[in-house]
Each structure stands twice: as structure tokens, then as C-alpha cells.
Specification:
The protein is an alpha/beta fold. The chain has a domain of about 190 residues: 3-Layer(aba) Sandwich (Rossmann fold), CATH 3.40.50.150. The protein has 10 helices and 7 strands. Helix 2 packs across helix 9 and helix 3 packs parallel to helix 4. It is globular and about 55 Å long.
């Protein structure tokens, strides 16, 4: 990756204030994500892969593959005659992904804005699970998806819904707006760049896709403890959740957020009500 990409999720980050940093990831966060996402993003990704109708022999690109759990699952779906390529901008997560060795599975460090290493019309399916909301600009990645897909190829996206914030993130934002943490504000209040259903439809239309499914889905999950909720927020944001704070304030903010989250605890844990946007389209 060149110097432009080392500072964010592609060159578009240089034009957008508050784009997430890639320099805050660590071995611990990557391994936490591998462990925690197995019961979170991975399950949503399995459902998205099923809805894409992936069949044996197909060539699939997992864009923003993380530690490779979903790519490994898809490699079983496509079988020995198919292939799966996983791409992610976080080297530590690709390192973990490469431990999942299979003849039809490979991983590369790269980003959604620059897929120059991939040939035109070389894939049947592109899947982006829990990735799209991290992209500060949407058009270039979708144009790259359209380029590497053959006509009729499918793209599947599972992403955060614009306008929805969980109680965990509401509490974290409240804490970070208070002294002494407010002396170090994030460039943007929100780390992610989510879209709504109509915006997704428009992005598909302008980048050469025909929408097949655009749907908002409700979900309810449980965090067993405040610590588990915070750990996931840190790991899934590759360190950006509290990464803007000095080390001594980061630890203090973590403690304060954990104390506030304790008020949400039930006998089963912290109830997480989510809303997710799922979108599938075909390249025209």
C-alpha cells in the first residue's frame, strides 16, 4: 500500500475530515475481533452470502474481509472449482486471515478505492459485510466493484443504517462530550458514514447496478457485560472508538463508559437493538 492509503481507507480520506485511521489497530484488537465477530458480523455475513445465492464454481471477492471468517465460509460454498479473494486494508487482520489456508482461498492487503490488482470482469460476486459504513466516499468503491464484476455479477452489502445509533454508542458519545474528554473532540461526532435505503438505491443507480433487494432489518442481540460491549466497539472500529484520546484519558473514558453501561444490565446482559441495511444488486 502506498503512503496515501496508509492514512485511511483510500485516497478519498484525504478529502474528508474524520475518516477512520488505520494506524490504531493492534494484534490484541485483531484477535479480539476474530473471537467476538464469530457470533456477530460472521453470522450476518453467512445470511448475506446465502441471499446472494453463491453456488459452486463461482469467483467471489470479499471486500473488507477482516480476519477472513466469512471468506473461509464462502470458500466452502464455491468448492474446489471456485475461488475466493479476501481484501482488507488492515495488515494485522490479513495476517490472521492467511492462517486459514485453502487452495481456493487467498488474501491481500488493499482497499476498496484501489482494486488495481484485480482484472476487469474477473468475479461473479462481491460481498461487503459490515464494511460499507466505514467508507467515507461510496461511489469509487462501487465503481471498482462494477469493474471487477462481469455483466450480471452480483454485489451484496450488509451495513449500518443511517440515523440509527445503539444505546452503547449513545452513552459513549455522552461520556466523550463531558469534561475532561471534551478537550479532545473527534473531527466528526460519528466514526462511520452510514446511508439509508434511498441513498443506497441512488448509489447503485449511478454506478451501473440494478437493485435486487434493499431492506432494513431489525435485530436484537445481547452483550453479556459492559466490558464485552466496549471490547467489541474497540475491535470492530480497529481502535478508533477511543483512539482519539491521550492514553491516560482513554483508560479513564473506558472506565466511565463501563460504569454507565452497567445501568443497562439485565439478568441476561445488555440488550442490543440494532437496525441493519441489506442491499443486493446486479451489474448492468
Amino acid at each position: 500500500m502506498g503512503s496515501v492509503r496508509e492514512n485511511g481507507l483510500g485516497a478519498a480520506n484525504l478529502r474528508l475530515v474524520g475518516a477512520p485511521s488505520l494506524s490504531l489497530d493492534s494484534d490484541e484488537l485483531a484477535r479480539d475481533y476474530e473471537r467476538i465477530s464469530a457470533t456477530r458480523q460472521f453470522q450476518s455475513g453467512q445470511r448475506l452470502a446465502a441471499e446472494l445465492g453463491i453456488v459452486p464454481g463461482e469467483r467471489v471477492l470479499d471486500l473488507g474481509c477482516g480476519t477472513g471468517l466469512l471468506a473461509e465460509h464462502i470458500s466452502d460454498l464455491v468448492g474446489p472449482q471456485g475461488s475466493v479473494v479476501g481484501i482488507d486494508p488492515l495488515p494485522l487482520r490479513i495476517e490472521l486471515a492467511r492462517s486459514k489456508q485453502r487452495p481456493n482461498l487467498s488474501f491481500e492487503v488493499g482497499d476498496a478505492f484501489h482494486l488495481d490488482m484485480l482484472q476487469d470482469s474477473s468475479f461473479d460476486v462481491v460481498i461487503m459485510n459490515a464494511v460499507f459504513h466505514w467508507l467515507p466516499e461510496k461511489t469509487r468503491p462501487l465503481l471498482e466493484c462494477a469493474r471487477v464484476l462481469h455483466p450480471g455479477g452480483r454485489v451484496g452489502i450488509g451495513t449500518m443504517l443511517k440515523g440509527h445509533r445503539t444505546r452503547v454508542h449513545q452513552i459513549a458519545s455522552k461520556v466523550l462530550s463531558e469534561p475532561p474528554f471534551d478537550r479532545f473532540p473527534r473531527p466528526r461526532a460519528q466514526l462511520t458514514f452510514p446511508v439509508d435505503a434511498e441513498e443506497m438505491r441512488a448509489f447503485f443507480e449511478m454506478t451501473g447496478f440494478s437493485a435486487l433487494l434493499i431492506e432494513v432489518r431489525e435485530s436484537t442481540r445481547m452483550w453479556p457485560s459492559p466490558e464485552a460491549a466496549i471490547s467489541f466497539s474497540e475491535a470492530s472500529s480497529f481502535g478508533n472508538f477511543l483512539g482519539h484520546l491521550p492514553p491516560e484519558l482513554k483508560a479513564r473514558a473506558r472506565v466511565t463508559i463501563r460504569q454507565r453501561l452497567q445501568n443497562l444490565m439485565t439478568a441476561d446482559g445488555i440488550i442490543h437493538h440494532g437496525r441493519r441495511l441489506v442491499a443486493i444488486a446486479a451489474r448492468r
